[in-house]
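#structure-requests
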Amino acid sequence: MKNKYRNIFILFGIAAIVIMFLTFDMEYEELWNNLKRAGMWLPAVLALWVIIYLLNTFSWYFIIRDGEKGSPIPFWKVYKLTVSGFALNYATPCGLMGGEPYRIMELTPYTGASKATSSVILYVMMHIFSHFCFWFASIFLYIVICPVSLFMGVLLTIIGSLCLIAIYFFVKGYRNGMTVKTLRILCRMPFVKRWAANFLEKKYDTLKRIDSQIAELHKQRKSTFYASLSFEFIARILGCLEVYFILNILTSDVSFASCILIMAFTSLFANLFFFSPMQLGAREGGFALATGGLAIPGAFGIYTGLITRVRELVWICIGVTLMKVGTGVGNKDSNK
């Protein structure tokens, strides 16, 4: 990737860091006292994400390798792009608007534009697909450990139905590819239909090739497909340890199963506000509502949201820093 493009992405990351510093809803002295209260659990939360990002990297790495013995890109660089890509996604409204173009542009010198684009699209699909699988599985966990009222029964039925519909469309997209169909849908939407039509016309052959690569993974590389999905799903479960660690600062009367439900509800709530940069306010509100729904004081949820926000800030700083590390690809023109 050219340095001027990389620097634009870095500016997005720096802007996110500044915004997060300015939007903490408390005095800095109070924030510092809360961080000191976390003690050893704060480093534990930060270290946990080393492992979570490692699982995310394995998921994407399996897709890039596509069943081959070797890989066109070193694993450590895929890890770097994974961390930096997620950092950029925190920085942009609607998510997936900064990290994915960055990953494609950085991966292209290793695999070519078509393969880079298809692997990133496949990974994004896998990442989102695992969300729906996680939410759907959490419904059954709730039924097992919590009493189900009429209201919750109706709500869980609605959520489960929406998850099944989403899972169906994802599976269909994996079987047939979805880039061309997505562009055709955009061709009917106001504001973007002219751009989408021009892009579809100019890049039709490339988009069809990307769709064939997406379909090939599901049809011919099923072991790669399920390995990638498994790593993403395990990352979702492991991410619930973050909530468990934080709540153990405040109380010992919390189970890991409850933390899974808190994380499931919170991530669902936060994704409903996907248009918010860094999901400011949405995640904290989701934590408060989720803990309250499980008879845990709402203040605990707000504190959990605070520590999570600090963790995000630290990892955004790490991700933005990594964007300037190891940028060479053995191509003298790649950094011009």
